[in-house]
Write a structure and sequence with these properties.
By secondary structure, this protein is mainly α. About 35% of the residues lie in helices and about 5% in strands. The chain has helices spanning about 15-20, 45-50, 55-65, 75-80, 85-100, 165-175, 180, 190-205, 210-220, 230-240, 280-285, and strands at about 105-110, 115-120, 260-265, 270. The strands form two sheets. A two-stranded antiparallel ribbon has the order 1-2. Strand 3 and strand 4 (about 270) form a beta hairpin. Helix 6 (about 165-175) packs across helix 9.
Length: about 290
């Protein structure tokens, strides 16, 4: 009974993949098929490649910047020419990298007086102070969003002419362009001139000359600076719009033509008619009985 039976089957082994099959591939998810790089490679930290707050464009841009040689241009225009993303998206990605410490940009003046931007790429933010701020342990707080620039107020509406033609609108634009010669404060942009041109055209169709319209717009200007000259002119074009000219009376009818004198064939009296014949009285008499 104390003899061990050597023919007894051994205990069944567990089929847990992680225990008996350490190299088994998972059923789902990524499978790595890696080869060891020996040249032309860049070491990228997982704190950047797996950053929880950076956008995918910012992560890819940081990897590209860390892979180029020192002295390579990485300004917005150069990067926009290199990648399909436009300047706006690239500028936003660079600001993300600056906010999380992967990039710093400072403007400096060279000895020749030229202002240049000095860009420093950091592959491990906080390594100089010995404190690595990884998003997995100590997430970085997002900076407050930049305030959007205030929107330019829309210009007030201006009167509209009854009939517009390219020649009339061009004359109106010429009137507006000449205002700055009378007062430098009335310098208008092309967009403002296009907005105000119909209002000037409405004045011109009221039998006013371009010179009269120009002097009416610059008369009695305030002494203080004009912050929005286009809005001021739009108000003046509307508030001081002259009335339409009165309707002209219709032209009198043309006088009837004066016919030459003819002698009546019946009574021999003279009368006016285009052709010879009988006068009105003879034509109205009943015919004589035969």
């Amino acid at each position: 009974m104390d003899t061990e039976n050597p023919s007894a089957p051994p205990r069944a082994q567990s089929r847990i993949p992680g225990k008996n099959h350490p190299h088994a591939r998972p059923h789902s998810g990524v499978v790595h098929d890696n080869a060891r790089h020996t040249e032309k490679f860049t070491v990228i930290g997982n704190h950047l490649a797996q950053h929880q707050e950076l956008s995918l464009l910012a992560i890819g841009l940081a990897c590209y910047i860390q892979s180029v040689r020192q002295g390579t241009a990485v300004d917005i225009k150069t990067l926009a020419d290199r990648f399909p993303e436009g300047p706006t998206r690239i500028a936003a990605a660079l600001r993300e990298l600056e906010a999380h410490g992967y990039l710093s940009r400072t403007r400096k003046r060279t000895p020749t007086g030229q202002v240049v931007t000095r860009t420093v790429s950091c592959n491990r933010p906080g390594h100089r102070t010995g404190t690595l701020t990884e998003s997995s342990s100590t997430p970085t707080r997002r900076p407050a969003p930049e305030k959007a620039p205030p929107r330019k107020k829309r210009l007030p509406a201006v009167p509209q002419p009854g009939y517009t033609s390219p020649a009339l609108l061009q004359t109106a634009v010429d009137v507006l362009a000449g205002l700055r010669r009378l007062d430098p404060r009335l310098l208008l942009s092309a967009i403002d001139a296009d907005h105000l041109a119909p209002g000037v055209a409405a004045w011109l169709e009221r039998d006013l000359t371009p010179t009269a319209v120009r002097h009416a717009l610059v008369a009695d200007l305030p002494m203080e600076p004009l912050i929005r000259p286009a809005a001021f002119l739009a108000h003046r074009l509307t508030a001081q719009l002259p009335p339409l000219p009165p309707l002209r009376p219709p032209a009198p009818p043309a006088p009837q033509p004066r016919h030459p004198f003819q002698h009546c064939d019946g009574c021999d009296r003279p009368f006016r008619a285009p052709d010879p014949g009988r006068c009105r009285d003879c034509r109205s008499d009943p015919p004589e009985a035969a």
